[in-house]
Amino acid sequence: MKTKHIVYALVDTDDTSVVRYVGRTQRPGARLQQHALNQSFGLIGVWCYFSIERGKDIAMCELEAVDGKLAAAEAEQAMIARYETTDLLNAQTWYRSQRAAGVPTGISSAYKHCMSRAAFWQAEGDGSRAHEMYSVAKTLSQTFPSLDIFWPARKSQLLANAVIVATWREGVLKFYDK
């Protein structure tokens, strides 16, 4: 018997037309909680961290439900291709889309590092170091606007059948009936 997998998008509930991440899971609530509490500070973790710090809700929208791991991997890759813009923070696509926008790889790497360190220092309670790192990242994004993970450059269109599965706000995970 094949197991049901959900292919999902992470979005800000203030603007669900901007897809920030595409993933797959068997346990949507647990996966959203992992994103919200992510301490690795990759790009999606940084976006989640600062979105929550700014009082924003993060939502997981179901894009497709499929049976089996292989079908889920294929559906996930198809959705990543569909939503691939400089707004999508999936690791495998972000650098490629930044190169296509004319941003040198070293600059993209420096921006990601600065944002990761800013989130880390903020979480550690060192606001001055966090501000220093964020300032460097902000300067880079003023030169290369596509880098700015908080100001989406291009809006995507969520599929008509996408449903919000759960939101994360102030440490509370809320589920919605489909």
Radius of gyration: 16 Å
Apparent shape: globular
**Unreliable residue runs:** 154-162
Structural class: alpha+beta
What's the main sheet like? Answer: 5 strands, antiparallel
Overall number of domains: 1
Proportion of residues in helical segments = 40-55%
Instruction: Name the beta content range.
Output: 15-25%
- Number of beta strands: 5
Helix and strand pattern: EEHHEHHHHEE
Describe the structure.
This protein is an alpha+beta fold and 178 residues long. The chain has one domain (4-175). The chain contains six helices and five strands; from the N terminus they run ββααβααααββ. A hairpin with a 2-residue loop joins strand 4 (163-169) and strand 5 (172-175). The radius of gyration is 16 Å and the shape is globular. It starts with a strand and ends with a strand. Residues 154-162 have low confidence and may be disordered.
Name its key features.
6 helices; 20% strand
In terms of topology, how is this protein built?
Layout: E1 4-12, E2 21-25, H1 28-36, H2 43-53, E3 58-67, H3 69-83, H4 91-100, H5 105-123, H6 127-143, E4 163-169, E5 172-175
Helix pairs in contact: 2-5, 5-6
